[in-house]
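Predict the holo structure. Ligand: pyridoxal-5'-phosphate.
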Amino acid sequence: MSMEKPVSKYALPHIKGLHAYTPGFQPKGDGWVKINTNENPYPPSPMVEEAIRASMGEDLRLYPDPLSWGVREAVARLHELDAKNVIVGNGSDDVLNLLVRAFSTAEEAAGFALPSYSLYPVLCGIQNSSTVEIPFDRAMGLPLDAIVKSGARILFFTSPNAPTGVGFSNDSLRALIGAFDGIVVVDEAYADFAQENAVELLGEFSNLVITRTLSKSYALAGLRVGYGLASPEVIEALDRVRDSYNVNRLSQAGAIAALKDQSYMKAIAGKVARTRDYYYFEFTNLGWFTYQSQANMLFTEPVNSAGERGASVAVELFEYLKERKVLVRYFPGHALTESFLRISVGDEDQMLKLSETIEQWLKNA
Ligand SMILES: Cc1ncc(COP(=O)(O)O)c(C=O)c1O
């Protein structure tokens, strides 16, 4: 016989009001053009599979290296830093979570610009941290003064930004990090598709943290590996709040192999960037306002055959594409996103199918 307990009464009050992060739809079955979650359309380096297979035997009975030390060293070599400047996470989401845990509370707010990566407020909600939202305007330029005056103790700033793909120059980031009284996290999930990145600023600012992921440019979203770069003081703080075995054995082995194969990563990231630039012009030529992207996505404002744009046009195209098994991402409920679609850059076949389906939509409307 089960004993009824008032379980919901036991949950913390702030947990009751939480909304879980809404990931992009993961369709079941074949035949989808899945360009909705900024995954890489190309396979990962063959060295990754080889390294994972080699780690698959008897050693799986042993816990992984709690520090992911081999990955830290590989990352440090790549960025010409010391392993003391590196932390490794179960995806960069894990590193972002550690940052929220270590640097924000109900009194010490976490700030982020809107629109940007929608996980930040979710992580803050779990921790019961207060948040400050700093709005972009349609030009999507850096809202420097508003950020500096926000009173946040830690800022999460995505560059290149998601969902727009807009990148920020090191000169503008330098001004921001210098003026901000707190930790600045530059979330560089998409940096390998961009012209510039902020790694050189680490030597100038002890309050700078950079987060990176192997999910995008390395085509390893399924492996769940990301990392943070920062001063040793920040890394030590993050290590204090980290789960002891936060990255599993196979992921550590695969990540080391992927990080070593830089030429492969650069080749596939370069292909994605070229396809992105081609479709930026395609959308612009259709008369669709599209942000110039430095990431693996395009944020574009569809215009229908009657010359109309807006939320209902974006929703209509989103549904039209979905019915034909082309999956893109739509962000409702915000004036700067609701008339746009975010299209992750796929391979040539996927982008051709997208483009043909858009043509049909324009003809049939
Ligand atoms: C800006 C940004 N940061 C971080 C992530 C998550 O990366 P990971 O797969 O390493 O957790 C994403 C994923 O979409 C992202 O868009």
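The chain is about 40% helix and 15% strand. The chain has a mean pLDDT of 96.
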